[in-house]
Amino acid sequence: MNENFKGKLFLIVGPSGSGKGTVIAELKKVFKDFVYPISYTTRKIREGEKPDDVYHFIARESFEKMIKNDEFLEYAIVHSNEYYGTPKKDIVEPLKEGKIVVREVDIQGFYSIKEIVSKEHLVSIFMKVSDLEDLKKRILRRGKMSDEELQRRMNSAIKEMEKASECDYQVENKWGAIDECVDEVEKIILNER
Ligand code: 5GP
Asked: What is the domain range of residue 173?
């Protein structure tokens, strides 16, 4: 698919609560000329989230219609129950124009995109959290959640963390040290762009 890509896609991978969203929000302030595609999801909007910022929140039927119309570069069912998908045109077009594109995805999204976008146009950065108690605190800090949902997210996190070494870079997000983590990601991007 990527014969005529000129740009680079940076994927931020890692479990829920590892700080991917925070890192991308900081990158947006620094790298204003990058493209930050908005994904689609069927999960409910959380308190404090803005629609059409990180996600377009849509109904299951609408998502399934988009799947049928081949509108996703990749999509996945995350945490066993909700759809998440990256829109094809918002990624492919900027890559053809030579732009830098940055998006967070779960590990399944990374695997799918790795099959479609060749190495020279793709950089993957895994955000690690070594302490599971830390991770639990971060997930809970985002808002109310049932015990089952918390457990689902913790289980996905443990599984995702085992895959960290498959990414090009690993960045550790230590409790209270998000700035260092953002600096590290910025350095990687500047080096690779
Ligand atoms: P959350 O519900 O916490 O916003 O996201 C749950 C997980 O889905 C996170 O790991 C997040 O990075 C991932 N995710 C967000 N957007 C996409 C997407 O477009 N595709 C895939 N495969 N995963 C996504």
From this structure: 8-192
The pLDDT value given to residue 56: 98
Is residue 2 a part of any domain in this protein?
Answer: no
Whether residue 69 lies inside any domain: the answer is yes
The answer to whether position 96 is within a domain reads yes
Cβ neighbours around 56 below 10 Å, total:
16
- Among candidate residues 163, 155, 173, the one with its CA nearest the CA of residue 78: 155
Site residues for ligand 1, CB cut-off 6 Å:
16, 20, 39, 43, 74, 76, 78, 84-86, 104-106, 108-109
Sheet containing strand 39-41, strands side by side = 55-57, 39-41, 82-87, 72-78
Residue 121 DSSP one-character state: G
How many domains in the chain?
A: 1
In terms of Cα–Cα distance, which of 85, 112, 104, 100 is closest to 171? 104
**Closest ligand 1 atom to the C-alpha of 39?**
19
In a domain, 45, yes or no: yes
pTM for the predicted model, two decimal places = 0.93
Could you report the per-residue pLDDT of 82-118, keeping only the tens digit for each? 999 999 999 999 999 999 999 999 999 999 999 999 9
Mean pLDDT within 163-186? 93
Domain at 49, CATH number: 3.40.50.300
Q: Which residue has the tokens 């479990």?
A: 15
CA 179, CA 182: separation in Å to the nearest integer? 5
